[in-house]
Give the backbone structure.
Amino acid sequence: MRIYGIVGWKNSGKTTLMERLVSEITARGFSVSTVKHAHHTFDVDHEGKDSFRHRAAGAREVLLASRNRWALMHEMQNDEEPALSELLEKLSPVDLVLIEGYKRDSHAKIEAHRAETKQGLLACDDPTVAAVASNHMVDGLSIPQFDLDDVVAIASYILKEVGLE
């Protein structure tokens, strides 16, 4: 499975870039799935809904299905967080999986960066960051740089890197 990551500090534009890349790449005829890492507890259902009530009652997994979509929720309980490779195995085959987060994993990544966050570049210390997409040019970088809003060029770069273009 072809994968490519988007990493960056909080408020660097990762999610917006992911959303725009999915739109651009699917418009080119490729199938795309995404994986998003969350550093906190999250819910995809809401208190009072049947699926929430099933989980609250102790169900290990709840599969919610309709004619439009299905979602499988798995309660970790005391298990360790699964590795990215284990999660990727759960996805149906697609042309490309874009991964938001998982900056410590070994797959290739583009770093989203905004000057106003005043955060240093991950790319300076992480050889898996292959390019930077930023709202300003960074002097002295030896890897490709893109304007954060140039989604066409960023998508073309990713597709070339994974062998799809």
The beta strands are 3-7, 32-36, 61-65, 70-74, 96-100, 109-113, 129-134, 145-147.
